[in-house]
Design goal:
This protein has about 180 residues and is mainly alpha-helical. Helix content is about 55%, strand content about 5%. A two-stranded antiparallel sheet has the order 1-2. α3 packs across α4.
Length: about 180
Amino acid sequence: MRPYYRASNYTMRNSVGYLMRICTNRVLPQMESLFRDQELTFSQWTTLVALHDGRVSTAGDLAHNICHDAGSLTRMIDQLEKRGLVTRHRSDTDRRVVTLSLTGRGRTLVEQLAPKVMDFWNGMLAGFSHAEVDALINLLTRLVLSAESGFRQVKGVKSPLLMSDVPISKPARPKKSS
């Protein structure tokens, strides 16, 4: 494919990077406000979600997958462990490796708060068809994987990005009609 951008057509209006940045900067405060009256902050919930399916299990993998710096993530994990939401387990074969997992209470909190997040995204995506949402997810996933390849080379990161395919919440039961 010939290059998409040229000096004659590259503007903020059609810059993928600018549009992604603006979208993130507009969505993040709304997501954080969803958790204002909850037991968890949005960052804490994101951390628990990443641990939810068990594929991400170390602090390093967690930092890489949720794009969080290691120092503040360690403090957050300390808080989550103290509150009984996460456990740490030192490896029997390699004492340097510490795995993380959700406690039952942590899993319950993730599943209880998931509908709030899903409602938010359903509202944001209300003007899109299901086919458009599927296409958006597909395109963003391809873009993330393309960016990940370059990121790993530049940063020397060895651990892979572990995008989950496990649903966070159990399917809702249909409401009984009265």
